[in-house]
Each structure stands twice: as structure tokens, then as C-alpha cells.
Amino acid sequence: MTSAQRPVALITGPSSGIGAGFARALAGKGYDLVLVARNRAALDALATELQQRFGASSEVLAVDLATVEGRRAVVERLARGVDMLVNNAGFGTTGEFWTADPALLQSQLDVNVTAVLELTRAALPVMIDAGRGDIVNVASVAGLLPGRGSTYSASKAYVVSFTEGLAGGLAGTGVRVQALCPGFVRTEFHRRAGIDMSSTPDILWLDVDQVVRTSLADLEAGKVRSIPGVQYKVLATAGRLVPQNLVRKLTNTFGNGRGRT
Ligand SMILES: NC(=O)c1ccc[n+]([C@@H]2O[C@H](COP(=O)([O-])OP(=O)(O)OC[C@H]3O[C@@H](n4cnc5c(N)ncnc54)[C@H](OP(=O)(O)O)[C@@H]3O)[C@@H](O)[C@H]2O)c1
């Protein structure tokens, strides 16, 4: 661990969106960063910004988390110890499961699930030895509600279930874990996935700062499942209380459940 100096947070996917929001918020709280994504130019620009605005130092790891080598490089860095890990990199796709490119589906599973598993496994031993550390795994409300897309929702359900199970196992170790479950957030996500969001009502949109602020406050409060926004807290609660076949129908009708993987 790095307690003698500034604490260090490793964030996957900070080249845009929620990950960039975590990087700015944590740099503002005094962390140095390890920035992990494919777009080196974006990571270098962020590192410069974090240095100028907050005096934070950043290591840049420009790797593809869909590859074995990419994940191995991050695992090796985590084994040397970090104070916080934010498993945020992830993506969705459009089209139906049965016509989607199998290679793309596999890389989605590798980024959204395998990387979360391997990076968490790599970070924990040093944290447990130190008796402290934080891991935020970015899931989605899509992982809480049935009937909204297939592989993306399944990947996020894995992240929720994995993180909640892990929280039980880590009780008493001093290490905190959180499954962050945002609804729609204004980032590059939907454009990259090719998802048309033009008919999504304003009330369903969250902004990155709100999501990051809620996550960090919930971490301090010891909440394992963090759901930013009152509208999504209500939806998630309703999703547990209403019969699941009705939830499936509603999410397919109002959530445009077809054409998603
Ligand atoms: N936006 C939403 O409505 C929403 C809602 C719920 C949950 N989420 C989740 O929030 C997380 C962040 O998404 P976002 O909304 O901030 O989207 P975004 O702006 O598209 O950012 C995604 C990040 O993931 C990184 N990434 C994607 N594939 C990668 C790969 N193969 N290797 C390494 N990094 C990779 C991207 O970096 P590079 O392209 O540089 O590699 C980028 O930094 C995701 O896990 C997403 O599922 C988003």
C-alpha cells in the first residue's frame, strides 16, 4: 500500500464518461491515479489535467482489457498495491444476440466480467494484508431488472451478484466493496453502442458528477449497493416488489428491450 505518500486509485475506463468523473473526483480528494484504457492520447490528456488542477500524478496503462495480455499488465500493477480500484470499463452493443458478432460478444464478456473478476482478485490480497482498501465495481440498473437486453444485462447482473457476495466474505477485513448501479448517464456509452436515446425522457438522465458523488458517499456510508438518483431507487425497489413476469413486460415495453445485446 502507499500510505506514506498520497493514496493511489487505479481506474479502468477513465478516457471518457463515468471513469473520467471518478478520476477527477479522486484526484480532488488527494489520490494519485493509475489510468487504464485503450485510448492513450485521452489518458495522457487526463493525466496532464489532473496534474495541473489537483497536483495528482498519474501512471498511464494503455491496454485493451478484452485481451489476456492487457488484463495481465493491470493485474501485475495491482499486485504491487493500490488503495482503491474502480472497475468501470465496460460497453453495450446493439442488434439481436443471434445476429451479433460472436467475437464482439466475447470481448464484451471479457471487459464487463472477466476483467472485473481478475482485477478484483489481484487487488485484494494487498488490501486485506493492509486491513483497508476500497473497490467500486460499476454495474448498472440493467443488472437489477429483468427483460432489458441480454448479454449486457447479464454481465451487469454478474457484477452485482459477485460484489454483494464478496462484501459478505470481506466483512471484518477493513476492505470495502460496492456495486454501483447507475441508470442512464450522459456519457459516450450509448453513441458507442449505437443505441438511439432520443426518446428517453429527461427525468431518466443522470450526470456523471451525480453518479460519482453518490458512489463515494455510499462507500463512506458502508452501502454495498449504490443506486444514484431517486427515480432509479424507486424503480429498483419496484422491480423487487412487482412480479418478475410483469417487470419483464414493462421493461420490454418502456425500455425498448429488443435490439439490445
Ligand atoms: N452511460 C450509462 O448510461 C451507463 C449506465 C449504467 C452503467 N454504465 C456503465 O458505466 C461504465 C462506464 O461507461 P460510460 O457510461 O462512462 O461509457 P463511456 O463514456 O463509453 O466509457 C467507457 C470506458 O470504458 C473503456 N473501455 C471500453 N472498452 C475497453 C477495453 N476493451 N479495454 C479498456 N477499456 C475499455 C473506454 O476506454 P477506451 O475506449 O479508451 O478503451 C472508456 O473509457 C460501463 O461499465 C458501463 O456499462 C453506464
Automatic annotation (TrEMBL):
PROSITE patterns: ADH_SHORT (PS00061)
Keywords noted in UniProt: Oxidoreductase
Keyword presence, Oxidoreductase: yes
Family under the similarity heading: Belongs to the short-chain dehydrogenases/reductases (SDR) family.
Name of the protein in its database record: SDR family oxidoreductase
Organism lineage string: Bacteria, Bacillati, Actinomycetota, Actinomycetes, Mycobacteriales
Key word Oxidoreductase present: yes
Gene3D superfamilies: NAD(P)-binding Rossmann-like Domain
Superkingdom to which the source organism belongs: Bacteria
A single GO molecular function term of this UniProt record: oxidoreductase activity
E.C. numbers: 1.-.-.-
